[in-house]
Amino acid sequence: MRPENAIEVRDVRKNFKIYLDKGHMLRERVIHWNRNRYERREVLKGISFDVKKGESVGLIGRNGCGKSTTLKLLTRILRPNGGTIEIQGRVCSLIELGAGFHPDMSGRENIYINASIFGIKAKEVDRRIADIIRFSELEEFIDNPVRTYSSGMYMRLAFSVAINVDADVLLIDEILAVGDNSFQTKCFNKLKSLKEQGTTIVIVSHALGQIEKLCDRAIWIDEGVIRQEGSARKICKEYLEKMEASRLERAELEYRMQLEDEKRKKEEEERRKEERKQEEERQRQEKKREEEQQRKHEEEKRRNASCRKIATQCGPDARRNGSGEVQFTEVKLLDAEGRESLCFNTGDKMTVTMKYQSKAVGEPLNFVICLTRDDWVFCYGNAFKSMTKQFCMSKKSGEVEYTIERLGLLKGKYFMDVRLQKPNSEECYDIIYSLFEFEVKSPGLHEAGMLHMDCRWEEK
Amino acid sequence: MLKRMTDIYEYRDMVFSLVKRELRGRYQKSVLGMLWTLLNPFFQIIIYTFVFTVIFPSSIENYYIYLMTGIIPWNFFTEALGQGAGTIVSNAEMTKKIYFPREILTIAAVTAKFVNMLLAFVVVLAFLLFSQVGISWHIVLLPVIMFAEYLVALGFTLFFSAITVYLRDMEYIVSVLLMAWIWATPIMYDINNLGQQVGRLLLLNPMTPIMMSYRNLLYYHQTPTLRTLLGVLGIGFVLLVIGELVFVRLEGNFAEEL
Fold first, then answer.
1. Which among A93, A99, A105 has CB closest to B25?
2. Are A350 and A407 in contact (CB under 8 A)?
3. How far apart are CA A56 and CA A210, in angstroms?
4. What are the chain A neighbours of B99 within 8 Å (beta carbons)?
5. Cβ of residue A391 closer than 8 Å to a chain B Cβ
6. For A27, which residue in chain B has the nearest alpha carbon?
7. pLDDT surpasses 60 at B99
8. Which residue(s) pair with A45 in the sheet?
9. Is the entire prediction scored with pTM above 0.90?
10. Distance from the B33 Cα atom to the nearest Cα atom in chain A, whole angstroms
11. Do strands A364-373 and A319-321 pair parallel, antiparallel, or not at all (unpaired)?
């Protein structure tokens, strides 16, 4: 080490472990036993510089460029991974203010504690305590507990201790922003006078104005290497220009990003609106459909119930449908004596009387009767038009009768549907499925199947 | 290593002021203040005396004196280790921002508890004086044993406080360890009442000879042999050196790990 140097830094390197999953807990350690993954990030990639005795040097650079790390290496809080650091004389660092302050103890006691952490002997503090108190401007409060101090008073006390320390080398990290303006000026002047007394100062700050005024030299650190060093005025100017340029660049980038963001947001919004609209539409339709169904269901129920009104013999499964312009008003199933009946023998006479009501007069109508067995086999069908070759022309209200002279069905359970059909169309004015559920018996007949036929056996 | 020792020595005032902060700061807001450091052991002894004369009478003569000559030194060890193990972690901000030999924090924590024990011994001696056991000239050797215990406590605390930085569970493991440790040390019972085998096993515990030495001086009034005295001091130094070596090995990355 050269005798004129206070600090010599040679090719210093520093890595930090960035843990990907930092596990301090035993559980995590055990689980990730061999998986304690971390990345090494190079913060300093080999920097070298000298600081002469009595010189003051400012370290400048962007956030995260490694200047605070450099300072911590100088104070020996961190150890370099490579390279050497040599310092001559007593070092004092003003990195953390108010270390070890106990809130319940008085300002005076805290001065001793704080100073002792900087490695200053009690005897030395005894000598300087008057200076320290005077500098802090806290004479009246010095014997009150520190917890009663305002934050400004607290920092003033802390700074006074730190700055009144006799040191050959003073390391300062961004702490000149303490107290009010007048106190800041006072601190600054104190630093200047320390410098004039021959103290070596290394200072990290973003306040370039202070560095320009205080420092002889500035070192510009950028991404872990020294980018430039030289007179404070020159370096600060260049740094500022570079920062301004990158600030503009960044601002533009941010502006662009913001624009993009907004665009994306807008699109997103629109998309969402569209979706919401579709969703609403869907829901509306769904609701409509449900209502429709509900209505239909109720209508059906009402209609099915109406079957009972028009036919006292109505079966339990009767279902009614149809457009309703012409409607049955009364349907009866009668036996040979003209009595309502649901029980017939094969060969009996069967009559169906149908009364109807119509909104329009003179509309052609077709009446249809269908018979189905209880196993859903269609047995028989007949229509007014197919037998009479003409339509029944509607009146306001009318009656039609259909008679089967001899019932041809064999024994079983049968259903009768009645229909009021619009001509030449499948559409019905009124249709009642399974209106009657009637029973047929075949006493004395021995035919099998569905139909009774006039037949005989003969041997020739 | 020598440089390290002188470095720590240079910072001795920091130890003093941290101890002072710990002792004064702790009771600063209470009405009785520092008096509590005396009242605490006083009431502890009163309670033990009550329990072991009224509830569980013990076969050991003057059992409460027997007990307190063990409990008070043990309290120091437990508190030093129990709280000292987390001291680097709890002072993380300071450790990350300011340079000082990191051992100072641990030394200060242990020393504060040691001073507590010294104060508690005022109470112990008062009790001894008024009991049938009395005080003999052997008491002049008490500082030697205390010093040995201090070394043992410091050694263990250095060891555990450094490990706690890397493995935060250590703090809790230590408290469990201490729970078991009190029963592995002849404090509540007499080692001579145990079998030969078990007794020998207990001697592996470095706290056993220390506790027995306290007893011999204060309770049995026996003169320890020079070998015993050197023995406990030797144990103390060895443990301190081991603790310090581990500490130095781990200390380099404290600021990064915290």
1. A105
2. yes
3. 12
4. 75-77, 91, 93
5. no
6. B169
7. yes
8. A13
9. no
10. 12
11. unpaired
Q: Please name the member of B13, B97, B168 whose beta carbon is closest to the beta carbon of A96.
A: B97
Give, in order, the Cα–Cα distances in Å from A264 to each of A187, A261, A269: 50, 5, 8
Calculate how close chain A gets to B27, using CA atoms only, in Å.
9
Q: Which residues contact B171 (CB under 8 A, 6 or more apart)?
A: B85, B86, B89, B164
The total of other beta-carbon atoms located within 10 Å of residue B134's CB is 11
Q: How confident is the model at residue A254 (pLDDT cuts 50, 70, 90)?
A: confident
Q: What ipTM does this complex have?
A: 0.80
A266 interfacial to chain B (CB closer than 8 Å):
no
User: Amino acid identity, residue A236?
Assistant: C
**Domain span at residue B230?**
2-257
Residues in chain A: 460
Q: Is A378:A434 a contact under the CB 8 Å cutoff? A: no
Q: For tokens 């963001």, what's the residue?
A: A261
CA B95/CA A117 separation, integer angstroms: 11
| Fold held by A5-251 | Rossmann fold (3.40.50)
Any idea which residue has 């250095």 for tokens? B158
C-alpha–C-alpha distance, residues A332 and A88, integer Å: 126
Give the Cα-Cα-Cα angle B61, B66, B69 (nearest 5 degrees): 160
Handedness of CA B206, B208, B214, B216 (dihedral sign): negative
Distance from CA of B182 to the nearest CA of A (A): 24
- B interface residues, A as partner, C-beta within 8 Å: 10-11, 13-14, 16-18, 20-21, 24-25, 28-29, 93-100, 166-169, 173, 252-253, 255-256
The closest CB to that of A100, out of B94, B169, B173, belongs to B94
Inter-chain touch B255–A78, beta carbons under 8 Å: yes
Min Cα distance A90 → chain B (Å) is 12
Say whether pLDDT at A267 is over 60. Answer: yes
| DSSP bridge partners of A298 | none
Q: CB-CB: which of A29, A91, A112 is closest to B17?
A: A112
Chain-chain contact of B168 with A113 (C-beta, under 8 angstroms):
no
Structure-block tokens of residue A239:
């740094």
Whether residue B254 contacts residue B165, with contact meaning beta carbons closer than 8 Å, is answered with yes
Interface test with A, best of B3, B14, B103, B170 (most A CBs within 10 A): B14
The model's pLDDT over B8-64, given as tens digits with 9 standing for 90+, comes to 888 888 899 889 888 887 777 777 777 888 888 888 888 888 888 888 887 788 888
The verdict on a CB contact (< 8 Å) between A102 and B21 is yes
Domain tally, chain B: 1
Portion 105-134 of A in contact with B at CB < 8 A: 105, 109, 112-113, 116-122
Q: Give CA separation, A426 vs A66, A385, B224, in Å.
A: 90, 14, 124
**C-alpha radius of gyration, chain B, whole number:** 19
Bigger pLDDT: A406 vs A25: A406
The larger pLDDT score, comparing residue B55 to residue B146, is at B146
Three-state DSSP at A430 gives: strand
CA pair distance A27, B12, nearest whole angstrom:
38
Give residue-wise pLDDT tens across range A185-244.
888 888 888 888 888 989 888 888 888 888 888 888 888 888 888 888 888 888 888 888
Question: Structurally, what CATH architecture does the domain formed by A319-441 represent?
Answer: Distorted Sandwich (2.70)
In angstroms, the CA A202 to CA A217 distance is 10
Distance from CA of A116 to the nearest CA of B (A): 4
**Half-sphere exposure in the Cβ direction for A238 (13 Å, CA):** 14
Name the residue ranges covered by the structural domains of chain A. 5-251, 319-441
